[in-house]
Amino acid sequence: MLFEKRGFFRENRGYNGAIKRNAGVSTDEVFPGMTEILRNVVIYMDLMMLPEFVKLALFMLAVFISNIVQALTGFAGVMLSIPPTILLYGPDMAKAVINAICWLVCALLMYQNRQYINPKELLRIVVFMLVGMAIGIHLYNVVNPQILVPLYGAIIVGAALKSLIFKQSASALPNWIAIPVLLGAGVIHGMFASGGALLVVYLVATFRDKDSFRANVASVWTILNLVLMFNDYEKGLYNTEFFELLGLGVIPLVIAIYLGNKIHDMINQKMFNRVTYCLLLAAGSMILI
């Protein structure tokens, strides 16, 4: 822990204003963007210092809400649960626990809906995404992420708005579009572990019914998340805290899967599509913001 006393942050939150008054300049004039960074650090550290039972309650609530959506659609659970979990337990532990929880949900959905899986399409998706992930891992060290992230967000927002406003084409994506989309999803996933939104752009054009869509997207993450889980294991993140959080997370997870499956069965295809596109729009907007 960088600082041990929570009071330090409260006593020093106004120090940037003091610098302004005393020196006539703001922190941002000396270090551009530093004020916002420090503000985020303060919030982050304050949340990590909450009483443990409060942190666990918030974590379990995040798992519950996000995995109702995950069970309903087959994606978006990580997008919804990672931000609050990072604030509570830090980025490394959040990524490790949420990846494992996501794998459990997806593996169950894959098994329950195995009759809807298209093996040929699944193989095609996984192969191109693995190639893209290898490229993305390399690019992470050589390309400025600030160039790619806005472009990624803009593509997602554009695809979501197009699907919400205009009538969908009945034909699948042509190869000259489909292959770059899959490779791009892999590249983004290799760089930022968040290529799911771009993958959904491909999936909504390929699988026209909600059962096939959910079964195949869950199958993709069941396979690809094993790579991420292995990396987390290699980093030594599978420690006592990890297994405690995973065990507690399973409790709301079971209820969330039950409710998500019920809602999935209740809604029609049109409503399912709208939910999917709205989640895409939310994902793209969050990336741009």
Q: What is the arithmetic mean of pLDDT? A: 77
Per DSSP, what share of the residues sits in E-state strands of 2 or more residues? Answer: under 5%
Number of strands: 0
Task: Kindly name the structural category.
Answer: mainly alpha
Largest sheet: none
Condensed summary:
By secondary structure, the chain is an all-alpha fold.
Describe the protein.
- The chain is built from 14 helices and no strands.
- The longest helix is centred in the last third of the chain and has 27 residues.
- Helix 6 packs antiparallel against helix 7.
- The two termini are 29 Å apart.
Distinctive features:
single chain, 289 residues, mainly alpha, 81% helix, 0% strand, globular, disordered N terminus
Present the secondary structure layout.
Layout: H1 6-12, H2 15-23, H3 27-30, H4 34-48, H5 52-73, H6 77-89, H7 91-112, H8 119-139, H9 145-165, H10 175-192, H11 196-206, H12 210-234, H13 240-266, H14 269-288
Helix pairs in contact: 4-6, 5-6, 5-7, 5-13, 6-7, 7-12, 7-13, 8-10, 8-12, 9-14, 10-11, 11-14
